[in-house]
Amino acid sequence: MSSYNLTHLKELESEAIFILREVAAQFEKPVMLFSGGKDSIVMFHLARKAFHPGKIPFPLMHVDTGHNFPETIKFRDDLIKETGETLIVKYVQESIDRGTAIEETGPNPSRNGLQTITLLEGLEEGKYDCAMGGARRDEEKARAKERFFSHRDEFGQWDPKNQRPELWNLFNGRKKIGEHFRVFPISNWTEMDVWQYILHENISLPSLYFSHKRKVVNRDGVLLAKCEYITLNKNEKWEEMDIRCRTIGDMTCTGVCMSEANSLEKIIEEVASTRITERGGRADDKRSEAAMEDRKKEGYF
Amino acid sequence: MQKTKGYLDMELLRFTTAGSVDDGKSTLIGRLLYDSKAIFEDQMDQLQKTSEQRGEEGINLALLTDGLRSEREQGITIDVAYRYFATPKRKFIIADTPGHIQYTRNMVTGASTANLAILLIDARHGVIEQTKRHAFIASLLQIPHIAVCINKMDLIDFKKEKFEEIRSDFKKFSSRLEIKDVNFIPISALNGDNVVERSKNMSWYEGPTLMHLLENIHIGSDHNHVDCRFPIQYVVRPQSKKYPDYRGYSGRIEGGVFKKGDEITILPSGFSSKIKSIDTFNGPISEAFSPMSVCMTIEDDFDISRGDMFVRENNQPDSKQDIDLMVCWMNTKKMIIKGKYTIRHTTQTARCIIKDVKYKIDINTLHRKEDDKSIGLNDIGRISIRTTKPLFVDSYRRNRNTGSIIIVDEASNETVGAGMII
User: Fold this and answer.
1) Regions in chain B scoring below 50 on pLDDT
2) So what's the pLDDT on residue B304?
3) Which residue among A24, A192, A277 sits closest to B43, beta carbon to beta carbon?
4) What are the strands of the beta sheet with B293-298, ordered from one edge?
5) Are the beta carbons of B240 and A54 separated by less than 8 Å?
């Protein structure tokens, strides 16, 4: 009987596929959020597996801050062309133009927080009743208590103290009109699992994840890539370094790391020996100890 | 550290830890995470900063698991927190649950998916009510393996006699429960004795360290590979040029092994057919077993939809509407006898009426209270329900996947109860 054992990656894959199918079965109009980062690329790959040989029965949605790495956008568009799946893009700029979002000012203005507004507007406009995201519980401590099926009220808010208990593999997606769910199919994956899975499945990624030369500035210990949205402060300067991204987000707040890892095998070695968490380089999490919890309550991913 | 190839062969073990702050649970988890290098430098920095701000001596590892602001403020864990670590042999998922009596529902939640439970006993106090409650829940939820860690051995001078006395007390008590595989380990979480490293202070102990047990305990038989159960989750119909007539039944195998060419019976219709193919994105496979997610096609063209189940003709679940179950109530709104609720079982949704409460269990003494029929938050009792349509059920003891249900309140849509079919 011992041959009937799954490896941990297969078991995690099976769990994620189960969740994705459950979403397709339980919700009327689900949507999958896609950022162009490795976690959403893995989630997209899992969705293709879950509904094979059919198409994915829901569209992808990208909330575009306008401050993306150009490599991310190219990768996103190529992926959609290659797979023939459907992508919806919502622009933070449009929320700003409408006046529902107000641009931050200062030397380090970030549109990261504004994504929440555009996201909620996009969900409401499309009447989506479930938005899937690639968040993982190992990323941040407020996420460690997140459910697979996470209920949001009519304002898109998360109430962490009043979450529905989640038992066995029985997921409760019942809701009132106007409410929606956030669902996280790869909740139980760690950064290492994601990388191992990418290697195992031979999934292609944006070039940003691999070591390359780029001009960066060191701001409060976070290395930020050169772009038109960042203004140098006094005593700061652009320096060229060998770097790669551990996470990909808005250019204004995604810290890059010095690295010479230019293959998946080398990245895995690096992840195995690194002593800093993935989000340790995210300027948006450094704003306060409960920064993530506060943003999540408002409807952030 | 982990070699690329080795990591791809790893197994997954899910375990739960129940206990309160005082019995050293956070310290134990902190030690497992720390010794397996799952705590990162920036997390350590943040812990140190917060511990200092709060005027605490040393680093408070409990702050690592208390993720929500209100938990940190109150210094208590109020919800299940999931933690992850890996060794070269296995990947581990910890469902860390608070142990206070008012958090029975969280313990039940954490236990529902666990392969193993760690029960912590303070060596100075021995088996107390809380230990009994945790053991009872582990047995009720049929967690396949139990590791009883007798902690704080350093405070009783690592005495063998005391360890043996606690072990025999626990055995005496647990003989009334259904616990299959129990291991007793004397540890000191604070100093690390028998957690990852073998203790130099307890040479009389010849068993494994906790980490050795977690890495090596046999979990291959934790899934049911005997009774074939495949609840249909979603019907895949591409209707594309390449697959104009494809009709695949997707879902997760909740018991047994299915092979291409196998004769199957489809519930509720009772029709028979044969498995034509078992398909995955990476191509067809010849067999699939629990808990794999797959997509099957069959030889015949029947009307099959979500909630139906593929089984074997000579090994079928009970198809019934009158069901007896043990229930753990999870909501402040009490269970209403004769009340109507929505239930979910495998991929089925139905409604039910609560017909009767047979008894409530005093979770400290395990006595059955037959005159107390009031089931409120954190209560456990035996009830009978009638469902609007037949469910295809096994006893929870035989199969956790086809023997479990959740009860949903139809007004608030909240999950209010967890049921284990008798």
Assistant:
1) 1-4
2) 96
3) A277
4) B230-231, B309-311, B263-267, B272-279, B293-298, B248-252, B234-236
5) yes
C-alpha–C-alpha distance, residues B372 and B382, integer Å: 11
Q: What span, in angstroms and rounded, lies between the C-alpha atoms of A86 and B27?
A: 48
Cβ contact B381:B413 at 8 Å = no
Are residue B185 and residue B207 in the same domain, yes or no? yes
Cα(first)–Cα(last) distance of chain A, in Å? Answer: 42
Categorise residue B332: left if φ over 0, alpha if ψ from -120 to 50, beta otherwise.
alpha
Q: Is A296 on the interface with B (CB under 8 A)?
A: no
The span from the CA of B3 to the CA of B9, in Å, is 10
Closest chain A residue to B343, measured at CA: A172
Last residue of a domain, one of B216, B251, B277: B216
Query: What per-residue confidence (pLDDT) applies to B60?
Result: 64
pLDDT computed for residue A282 by the predictor: 56
What 3-state class would DSSP assign to A38? helix
- Residues of the domain holding B269: 230-311
The ranges of chain A with pLDDT < 50 are 1-2
The rounded distance, in Å, linking the Cα atoms of A57 and A194 is: 24
Are A172 and B67 a contacting pair at CB < 8 A?
no
Shortest distance between the Cα of A94 and any Cα of chain B, in A, equals: 33
Q: Which CATH architecture best describes the domain A8-193+290-298?
A: 3-Layer(aba) Sandwich (3.40)
| pLDDT (tens digit per residue) in A67-87 | 888 899 999 999 999 999 999
Tell me if A145 and B345 make a contact (CB, 8 A cut-off): no
Q: Is there a contact between B344 and A21 if contact means CB atoms under 8 Å apart?
A: no
Q: Which amino acid is at A204?
A: S
**CA nearest to B106, candidates A24, A100, A165:** A165
For position B112, what pLDDT does the model report?
A: 94
- Report which residue type is found at B160: K
Q: What is the pTM of this model?
A: 0.91
For residue B317, is the peptide bond before it cis, meaning its omega torsion is within 30 degrees of 0? Answer: no
Query: What are A184-223's pLDDT values in tens digits?
Result: 999 999 988 999 999 999 999 999 999 999 998 888 888 8
Indicate the SS3 state at residue A194.
Answer: helix
CA distances from A187 to A146, A214, B83, B295 (A): 8, 32, 11, 23
CB pair distance less than 8 Å for B291 and A11: yes
- Ordered strands of the A130-132 beta sheet: A87-91, A60-64, A30-33, A130-132, A180-183, A149-152
Q: What is the pLDDT of residue B3?
A: 44
Dihedral of CA atoms A259, A263, A267, A268 in degrees, nearest 10, equals -160
Task: Report which residue type is found at A150.
Answer: S
CATH number of the CATH domain containing B243: 2.40.30.10
Closest CA to B345 of A25, A188, A172, A129: A172
Q: How far is B108 from chain A (nearest CA, A)?
A: 8
